[in-house]
Specification:
Oligomer: single chain
CATH topology: Nuclear Transport Factor 2, Chain: A
Largest sheet: 6 strands, mixed
Mean pLDDT: 84
CATH architecture: Roll
Number of helices: 3
Low-confidence stretches: 1-22
Number of strands: 6
Order of helices and strands: HHHEEEEEE
Shape: globular
Length: 132
């Protein structure tokens, strides 16, 4: 039984990597220029969210997978974090992955956006929202 479980895990990992590598050919645009426009131009943002957007959403002790749909989307904007206890970690990993994490220690607040190229253009492809 352990061998079957191990083989299943390996198979699932290979499938996940295959799907991811098919989507990632490397972005042909500058991430920071994309990101600035993404957070300020609502039309552009709607074009660059990979709807239906998969992720996790935590509310009132209920944590579960969540799907965001185009018709319910609320525009993401540049957070104003100066002078707040929030910490931000924006990381660009080459031309195939970028993450933006915002958190507040000991509060339970955590927000993460994951960006990958789709047809060589940056898109929001996954999100985690723990809200307050």
């Amino acid at each position: 039984m352990k061998n079957i479980s191990g083989l299943l895990m390996i198979f699932l990992a290979i499938c996940a990597m295959s799907c991811r590598s098919a989507r990632q050919a490397g972005a042909s645009e500058d991430f920071y220029a994309f990101y600035d426009r993404f957070l300020t131009d609502s039309t552009f943002q709607m074009e660059r969210v990979q709807f239906p957007l998969q992720g996790l959403k935590f509310t009132e002790g209920n944590d579960s997978t969540h799907t965001w749909y185009r018709e319910d989307w609320m525009m993401l904007k540049e957070p104003q974090l100066d002078g707040t206890p929030f910490e931000r970690d924006l990381q660009l990993m080459g031309d195939t992955l970028a993450t933006d994490e915002i958190r507040m220690d000991n509060s339970g607040f955590y927000f993460k956006m994951v960006y990958e190229p789709v047809k060589r253009k940056w898109h929001l492809v996954y999100m985690i929202d723990s809200g307050l």
